[in-house]
Design goal:
The chain folds into 2 domains: 149 residues, Quinone Oxidoreductase, Chain A, domain 1; 138 residues, 3-Layer(aba) Sandwich (Rossmann fold), CATH 3.40.50. The protein is 28% helix and 27% strand. It contains 10 helices and 16 strands. α3 packs across α4 and α3 packs across α9. The longest helix is centred in the middle third of the chain and has 13 residues. The radius of gyration is 20 Å and the shape is globular. 45% of the residues are buried. The mean pLDDT is 94.
Length: 318
């Protein structure tokens, strides 16, 4: 089978490897569809996340597939089950994992939706309980994660949603999901535009969903109520300069995914699948391009060099 390895270059190495065999507590999954993570995967192949993901590994982590083999100790999954995965190393044809990394999915979800369950789960994990009914929410970045935050803010009953991005097609999409004001951050000072949009209001919640230094810095300067929350969802490479005195005086809370713990750790994944299944969150239209696993480097060329053309890319196994 083929695996797409990160070998320290922006071009992934497609290599023939042996199919894995599951341990007694594992299942073997045949990958049907992956989606490229525009943030983490891009940062891996450009060398910005070497401290977390070293060279020599198969990457990919947003996938859906079918169980084709189960270890002798597995009782909660069966051969033929369709599953969403929260496992790393899925840019391949088969992988093995323990069942705590998988969730069953209903038959009516298509493979794009199943692959995107992982990012819906991660966004839900940080939005739940942090965005409340009546909140004024500012979301910096309207890539797939930002658009999901916009949908979840609307679903939570936010009174106002203000968003920023560099590309008008993403801002237009955000408006269809409930954004009241959509600001193109390339056309002037986005903080000034946000302040104008807020008027006499202040943000209860600020979401950094772009994962870049500029928006991480902007998140700290959005006019906010005392005790507001900054949800730092984007994985920003490098060190973000925080002025503790400013945070203290504003009473701001910075929330990262590590602070979003649930008594039942499987709940966010289950809830993400439920939201998709009930049609309360829409992701089908996120897919702007499709490639096969053998064409994965063509897909990454788009991600790295033509970001204005993409929203989300599906990598399909034939």
């Amino acid at each position: 089978m083929i695996g797409a390895f990160y070998r320290g270059d922006t071009v992934l190495s497609l290599e023939q490897i042996n199919e894995p065999t599951p341990m007694p507590n594992e299942v073997k999954v045949k990958v049907v569809t992956n989606t490229i993570c525009n943030s983490t995967d891009r940062k891996i192949v450009t060398g910005l996340r070497k401290e977390r993901f070293g060279v020599g590994n198969i990457i990919g982590h947003e996938s859906g597939g079918i169980i084709v083999e189960a270890g002798s100790l597995v009782t909660d999954f069966s051969i033929g089950d369709r599953v969403a995965s929260d496992e790393w190393g899925t840019y391949t044809e088969f992988f093995c994992t323990t069942t705590d990394k998988l969730q069953h999915v209903p038959d009516h979800l298509n493979w794009d939706e199943i692959a995107l369950c992982e990012i819906v789960m991660k966004v839900y994990q940080m939005a739940a309980g942090n965005i409340l009914s009546g909140d004024t929410v500012v979301i910096l970045g309207q890539g797939p994660a930002g658009l999901l935050f916009t949908q979840l803010a609307k679903l939570a009953g936010a009174s106002r949603i203000i968003v920023t991005d560099l590309y008008d097609f993403k801002l237009d999409r955000a408006k269809t999901y409930g954004a009241e004001v959509a600001i193109n951050a390339s056309e002037g000072d986005p903080l000034e535009a946000i302040s104008d949009a807020l008027g006499t209001d202040k943000a209860d919640v600020v979401v950094e969903a772009a994962g870049v230094m500029d928006t991480a810095k902007q998140a700290l300067r959005v006019p906010s109520v005392y005790g507001s929350k900054i949800i730092q969802f984007g994985v920003v490479p490098g060190e973000v300069p925080y002025n503790f005195g400013y945070l203290h005086d504003c009473g701001q809370q910075i929330v990262t995914i590590g602070a979003c713990n649930f008594a039942d750790p499987t709940l966010p994944f289950k809830r993400a699948i439920q939201l998709l299944s009930e049609g309360k969150i829409e992701v089908k239209s996120f897919i702007s391009h499709r490639f096969t696993l053998s064409q994965i480097n063509d897909a990454f060329d788009l991600v790295l060099n033509r970001p204005s053309e993409i929203l989300k890319i599906a990598i399909e196994n034939s």
